[in-house]
């Protein structure tokens, strides 16, 4: 029995590492039929939690290092070699800090808010195809499931702000909800263009549609089309806002409302919010990789046979690096700028991009060289012209000048 257990375990690990199908079948046969469904679920959940929790720890260190480089400082350099053990120190600090709850707070809701935020974030990973034959659940409506579980984040943020009985917390929660709803619409609409082209809500089908190469070297990723590039930029900007990342971190504007809905949280509860924010960033980045960057497909044909999940995580880390880079580069927006940008620019552009994606689909018969070039020019012009017009109308007649600095004499 023990020998069969370890043999099945090692065989399962080998099949997972080498991208082979049915990796769990041999290992599950060791257990009784009654326990097999439960063991199968655990074998899908535990690796996801371990991998992305480890990625969370690595990203917190990487973000501090990159921001330190941008700001001409060292970043973490005391705990462990080059500060690599800083996430461990931070975790221990959060575990040992006192959990302070305001006397007038709704203690049950105050406790449930970080849990309600973290659990749906983990559920979103259930439909992401991390590699070849590596998707926990292949749902026919996988992208619909992803957005459905992600919609509960607004509820958890409001629970945190309302239960704290603090004006700063409530104001921060309302800001966050207004921002998340405003940018969730263009985020979903940018994904609808991909669904239209593929004709499926399954994330596995979307990745398979992007397989192959043009001219034996150019990937068939949607980002290399006019509508796909525009959709990817809209998706990326909306993802920043959904993740409360700079320059859209208004819900936690410390100079105005202390820490927003997190003001009355400390210790491990605060760490859960922090963890859920990063896990949400990983999830939405993984969705962006799946929709526009070919998922686990390699960038070049001769690399396609390599371990598929490596390419998925490299693309994911590249997007995370872009998020960090933007945080260290752009200043925070005002509330009116943020909402105007969402409703007056991103939303119209996402609707126009849907129409362009439809034109791209119905002109797929233009298979000659001249037809392909004309197709590109037509779709690119249909995106570029509204982009310029909407951008100028958003700025309006405001006179933009260089900032001048005056010092007291």
UniProtKB/TrEMBL annotation:
Molecular functions (GO terms): NADH dehydrogenase activity; oxidoreductase activity, acting on NAD(P)H, quinone or similar compound as acceptor; quinone binding
GO cellular component, one term: plasma membrane
Principal cellular location given in the protein's record: membrane
Organism of derivation: Pedosphaera parvula (strain Ellin514)
Membrane-spanning ranges: 38-62, 111-131, 143-162, 183-201, 221-241, 270-294, 306-326, 338-361, 373-390
Membrane topology: Multi-pass membrane protein
Keyword Translocase attributed: yes
Gene symbol of the encoding locus: nuoH
Listed HAMAP family: NDH1_NuoH
Pfam families (UniProt xref): NADHdh
Name under which the protein is recorded: NADH-quinone oxidoreductase subunit H
Oligomeric and partner information: NDH-1 is composed of 14 different subunits. Subunits NuoA, H, J, K, L, M, N constitute the membrane sector of the complex.
Domain of life: Bacteria
Sequence similarity: Belongs to the complex I subunit 1 family.
Catalytic activity: a quinone + NADH + 5 H(+)(in) = a quinol + NAD(+) + 4 H(+)(out)
Function: NDH-1 shuttles electrons from NADH, via FMN and iron-sulfur (Fe-S) centers, to quinones in the respiratory chain. The immediate electron acceptor for the enzyme in this species is believed to be ubiquinone. Couples the redox reaction to proton translocation (for every two electrons transferred, four hydrogen ions are translocated across the cytoplasmic membrane), and thus conserves the redox energy in a proton gradient. This subunit may bind ubiquinone.
Keywords, ordered alphabetically: Cell membrane, Membrane, NAD, Oxidoreductase, Quinone, Translocase, Transmembrane, Transmembrane helix, Ubiquinone
The protein's Enzyme Commission number: 7.1.1.-
BP term (GO), one: aerobic respiration
Cell membrane recorded as keyword: yes
Leading EC class: translocase
């Amino acid at each position: 029995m023990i020998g069969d257990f370890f043999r099945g375990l090692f065989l399962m690990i080998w099949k997972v590492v080498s991208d082979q199908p049915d990796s769990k079948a041999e290992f599950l046969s060791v257990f009784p039929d009654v326990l097999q469904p439960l063991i199968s679920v655990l074998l899908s959940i535990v690796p996801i939690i371990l991998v992305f929790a480890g990625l969370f720890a690595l990203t917190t260190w990487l973000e501090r290092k990159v921001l330190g480089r941008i700001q001409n400082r060292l970043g973490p350099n005391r705990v462990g070699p080059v500060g690599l053990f800083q996430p461990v120190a931070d975790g221990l600090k959060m575990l040992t800090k006192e959990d302070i709850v305001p006397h007038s707070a709704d203690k049950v809701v105050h406790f449930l808010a970080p849990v309600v935020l973290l659990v749906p974030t983990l559920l979103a990973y259930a439909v992401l195809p991390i590699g070849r034959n590596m998707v926990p659940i292949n749902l026919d409506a996988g992208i619909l499931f992803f957005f459905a579980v992600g919609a509960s984040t607004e509820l958890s943020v409001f629970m945190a702000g309302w239960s704290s009985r603090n004006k700063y917390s409530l104001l921060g929660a309302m800001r966050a909800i207004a921002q998340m709803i405003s940018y969730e619409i263009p985020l979903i609409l940018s994904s609808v263009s991909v669904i239209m082209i593929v004709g499926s809500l399954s994330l596995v089908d979307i990745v398979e549609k992007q397989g192959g190469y043009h001219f034996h070297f150019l990937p068939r990723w949607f980002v290399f089309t006019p509508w796909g590039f525009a959709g990817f930029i809209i998706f990326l900007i909306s993802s920043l806002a959904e993740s409360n990342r700079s320059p859209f971190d208004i819900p936690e504007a410390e100079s105005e409302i202390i820490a927003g809905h997190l003001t009355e949280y400390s210790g491990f509860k605060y760490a859960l919010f922090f963890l859920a924010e990063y896990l949400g960033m990983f999830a939405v980045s993984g969705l962006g990789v799946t929709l526009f960057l070919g998922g686990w497909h390699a960038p070049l044909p001769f690399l396609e046979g390599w371990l598929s999940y490596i390419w998925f995580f490299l693309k994911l880390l590249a997007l995370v690096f872009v998020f960090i880079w933007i945080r260290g580069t752009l200043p925070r927006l005002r509330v009116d700028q943020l909402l105007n940008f969402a409703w007056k620019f991103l939303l119209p552009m996402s609707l126009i991009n849907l129409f362009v994606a439809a034109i791209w689909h119905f002109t797929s018969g233009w298979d000659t060289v001249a037809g392909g070039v004309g197709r590109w020019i037509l779709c690119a012009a249909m995106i570029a012209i509204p982009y310029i017009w909407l951008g100028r109308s958003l700025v309006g007649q405001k006179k933009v000048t260089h900032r001048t600095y005056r010092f007291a004499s």
